[in-house]
Design goal:
3-stranded antiparallel sheet; two-stranded antiparallel sheet; 7 strands; elongated
């Protein structure tokens, strides 16, 4: 028995530690930049590139990366055999064509310019000048996708709700230990579905702490079928914000159980050492779960949920362009699966190897080698000609060499932007730099709100019947 208790204690500590680590390393924030360190200017294709470059010059935007200032991302000379044969190398051509996708939105209607963030204020002036310019280009759309603000109201509302429950609670220390991780969860996952789920969890913890330790408190909580259904629905809904959002929420729940176990162990140990232990005479059946504060608790829950819902819709950034219904999908760094039409650094390494090794591939070979190539070199010593083969190998060392050469490229190559995102970055398409609230999330959030409202109404009806 003691060994079993020891195992459960260690498991509980590991679960709580894993939850803390996950809250910091797996966090998903709605706000952010498309590209770390860069703002993205988008202009309609109908706007001449020269007009944009003139605006850059006028407002002293000296650094930018665009399609018109790109060249072959290599240190090979233009008259080298490797570059001369490049057009015959299909693998090399494919990379360059896909690389061009970074300079257009997904629909190919907008041209993109990447500018370091310290030019952001000047870039806004560029946009203003493009929109106010006279002539046939004045009516076309342009703008900047800048860093969006973090949705502070979501964790603030959660903290406020937890604080009010803390004030009403009879076991404040106990409740604060249980409420800490759920509140921190909304800091790391500031989504409307996550927030409402935490609201419901905090309400359940508030009920739990009020009757914890009394007779039949488990049965009382398990008989609250409506609240259990609401809680289960909220548990499922957090996955609509992403897999990690739901996974970490499950870790939070596991940590709550672990905290309860450790608290109970400490409580039993303290009772065993104490000469006098108070006994809770009244059953949990006669204790009001919300201590008579139902109207305040659920009024706050519904009010804060409604405010957060409205706030999330207003700040979801459904449109990047001037027209509300128009969405522009930009290439961006993504945590999901890679888009095959947007090459990454791994593809660049392969491209560099393909360019350098292609002239030395055997034309008689039916299979092209993308990893190893032997280069024959001939030397004449006296009357004899000797052959030496150098192995050209694609390896981690080769990748590291190419990686270190990126900053030496004599122009603003897009590979330099890739490098600043981190060697393992993946690219996909995103509607903008701010958080986009999908229709599915709106429906789920509305259902959470409606179920909570239904439970509140049902509880008030039952309360009225008891007073008759």
């Amino acid at each position: 028995m003691k060994k079993s208790n020891f195992v459960w204690t260690i498991f509980s500590i590991i679960a709580i530690t894993a939850c803390f680590v996950s809250l910091f390393f797996f966090r998903q924030l709605p706000g952010g930049e498309l590209w770390k360190g860069y703002s993205v200017l988008y202009v309609e294709n109908k706007i001449p590139d020269s007009l944009v470059l003139n605006a850059f010059s006028e407002y002293e935007v000296k650094e930018y990366t665009c399609l018109s200032n790109q060249f072959l991302p290599t240190d090979l000379k233009a008259d080298s055999c490797e570059v001369s044969l490049l057009s015959l190398n299909q693998e090399a051509v494919d990379y360059l064509l896909k690389r061009n996708n970074y300079f257009f939105d997904k629909s190919q209607n907008y041209r993109l310019y990447y500018v370091p963030v310290f030019y952001k204020n000047r870039l806004l002036q560029v946009v203003k000048s493009l929109k106010t310019s006279e002539g046939p280009n004045s009516n076309y759309n342009s703008g900047v996708d800048t860093k969006s603000s973090y949705p502070f109201l979501i964790p603030i509302f959660t903290f406020l709700y937890g604080l009010i429950l803390f004030i009403f609670s009879k076991k404040r220390k106990f409740f604060s230990f249980l409420a800490f991780l759920p509140v921190i969860y909304t800091v790391s996952f500031s989504f409307i579905t996550s927030e409402i789920s935490v609201f419901i969890l905090l309400s359940y913890l508030f009920m739990f702490t009020n009757i914890f330790g009394r007779r039949d408190f488990q049965k009382i909580l398990l008989k609250k079928y409506v609240y259990i259904i609401l809680f289960i629905f909220s548990l499922v809904s957090v996955f609509t914000s992403g897999f990690f959002s739901g996974f970490v929420f499950l870790l939070v729940l596991l940590s709550e159980i672990s905290i309860l176990y450790l608290f109970r162990k400490i409580q039993i140990t303290a009772y065993q050492k104490s000469h006098f232990n108070p006994v809770m005479i009244r059953s949990s059946r006669v204790i009001p779960l919300f201590l008579g504060k139902e109207n305040i608790v659920f009024g706050l829950l519904l009010g804060l949920s409604a405010l957060s819902f409205v706030f999330s819709i207003l700040t979801s950034g459904p449109s990047v362009g001037e027209n509300f219904g128009t969405k522009i999908y930009f290439p961006s760094v993504t945590s999901s699966s890679k888009n095959e039409n947007l090459p990454d650094l791994k593809d660049y390494y392969k491209w560099d190897f393909a360019v350098r090794s292609f002239p030395y591939q055997s034309l008689n070979s039916l299979q092209y080698s993308s990893e190893n190539t032997s280069i024959s070199r001939f030397t004449k010593e006296g009357n004899e000609i000797s052959q030496k083969k150098d192995i050209f190998q694609f390896s981690e060392q080769y990748e590291e060499t190419v990686y270190n050469k990126i900053d030496l490229l004599p122009f603003n190559a897009f590979e330099k932007i890739m490098k600043k995102q981190g060697e393992d970055f993946r690219a996909g398409y995103s509607s903008n730099g701010s958080h986009h609230l999908s229709l599915f999330c709106i429906i789920i959030s509305f259902m959470q709100f409606t179920l909570t409202l239904f439970y509140f109404a049902w509880m008030l009806i039952n309360k009225g019947r008891r007073h008759k």
